[in-house]
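Good morning,

Attaching, inline, the backbone tokens for the sequence recovery test we're adding to the shared suite. The designed sequence is right after.
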């Protein structure tokens, strides 16, 4: 890294960002909360459609319940700030109804479609970009954060908890707070070598030799007793685990609801 880049505060924030799960119990100021949300809202958004919404979860009973519905993560209840990021196209289709778009389509002979899979994916991109902008904004304020992907589990429960309409999907949730203790004592997680992540012009699949080299400096320990290698460890401990099975079920249920004809 050049001397110029080493002095760039934004690059330093990104390079040294760590997931923070233990927070100082002191509440965040309203100014800090507003700044984090404003940072999220300045994120790029497809066609400036802003196909996301944010719910500030400050009800302690809701936070306590989220601990259980999001795979038993106590940090949710203790976090000074919890924001739920929603992929949201409901707002636009409600506006299209007010604007009589369907009637206009019939008048001019054009098909009117309700939201499809592509709309959900685009809205998820919008919401996740906004979420990451909020993370960097929080870092700039000295506030740590932790993503909670498990909000995609228990779709029916979360939909009821937050009064989510048909075309709104909870894609991620974030906990924020001033780190408890010196965050710099937390080791930075490793990343794979660039050559296995960034390709030029076309995708490259990896060989057994490539995988061995890619993972040789990975510090993850074997914790699944049935696993004999890293591949088995990652599948059995993550992608084949009960919480992933539930997440897959929930997303399928959400997709069925999303695409259901009214």
């Amino acid at each position: 890294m050049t001397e110029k880049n080493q002095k760039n505060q934004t690059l330093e924030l990104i390079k040294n960002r760590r997931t923070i799960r233990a927070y100082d119990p002191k509440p965040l100021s309203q100014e800090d909360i507003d700044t984090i949300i404003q940072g999220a809202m300045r994120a790029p958004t497809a066609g400036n459609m802003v196909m996301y919404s944010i719910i500030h979860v400050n009800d302690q009973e809701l936070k306590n319940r989220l601990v259980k519905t999001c795979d038993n993560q106590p940090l949710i209840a203790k976090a000074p700030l919890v924001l739920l990021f929603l992929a949201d196209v409901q707002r636009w289709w409600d506006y299209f109804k007010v604007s009589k778009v369907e009637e206009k389509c019939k008048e001019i002979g054009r098909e009117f479609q309700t939201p499809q899979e592509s709309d959900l994916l685009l809205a998820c991109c919008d919401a996740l970009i906004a979420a990451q902008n909020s993370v960097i904004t929080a870092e700039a304020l000295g506030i740590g954060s932790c993503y909670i992907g498990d909000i995609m589990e228990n779709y029916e429960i979360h939909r009821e908890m937050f009064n989510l309409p048909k075309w709104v999907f909870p894609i991620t949730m974030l906990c924020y707070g001033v780190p408890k203790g010196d965050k710099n004592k937390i080791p930075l997680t490793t990343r794979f070598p660039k050559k296995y992540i960034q390709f030029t012009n076309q995708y490259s699949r990896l060989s057994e030799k490539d995988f061995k080299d890619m993972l040789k400096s990975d510090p993850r320990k074997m914790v699944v007793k049935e696993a004999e290698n890293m591949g088995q460890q990652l599948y059995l401990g993550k992608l084949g685990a009960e919480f992933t099975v539930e997440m897959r079920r929930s997303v399928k249920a959400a997709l069925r609801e999303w695409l259901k004809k009214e």
